[in-house]
Design brief:
This protein has 135 residues and is mainly alpha-helical. The protein has a domain of 74 residues. The protein is elongated.
Length: 135
């Protein structure tokens, strides 16, 4: 078993061709190994400049108020679409009173949702803090 392993190691060394610290017999590899490293040819074309501000301002908000605001904004958006849908149905129908009553009910709910979203937005602005970070 020892002789087989030595033969395999010799085959691997021959296949590598002197990359493990030995000189290669190939003249092209010898020439490349002694060549000087070249400069980056694209360095003139890709000049990157990164600038950072002297101060960074971060607005911190209360997460629960933000969550409430997002929920009420979604509800108002949904109810606005419902009002438009029932309003168009009422106008295209033969003046159905049930569709008109449904439109009015959803319009009132839409108004309540918009008012709640606005109130949450004002509360969000009042509870926010600004943190300034300097370099």
């Amino acid at each position: 078993m020892g002789e087989e392993e030595e033969e395999e190691e010799e085959e691997v060394e021959e296949a590598v061709g002197g990359l493990a610290g030995r000189e290669s017999e190939d003249p092209e590899l010898q020439k490349a190994a002694g060549a000087k490293a070249s400069d980056n040819p694209l360095s003139d074309f890709f000049d990157v400049t990164v600038s950072t501000p002297e101060t960074l301002e971060i607005k911190m908000v209360d997460a629960t108020v933000l969550s409430d605001y997002e929920v009420w904004s979604f509800i108002a958006s949904f109810l606005g679409a419902v009002v438009v849908g029932f309003g168009v149905a009422y106008l295209q129908a033969t003046k159905n009173v049930t569709l008109l009553a449904t439109t009015v009910v959803f319009l009132v709910l839409f108004g309540v949702a918009v008012r709640m979203a606005y109130a949450k937005r004002k509360r969000l602005a009042a509870k926010s803090k600004t943190i300034r970070l300097r370099q």
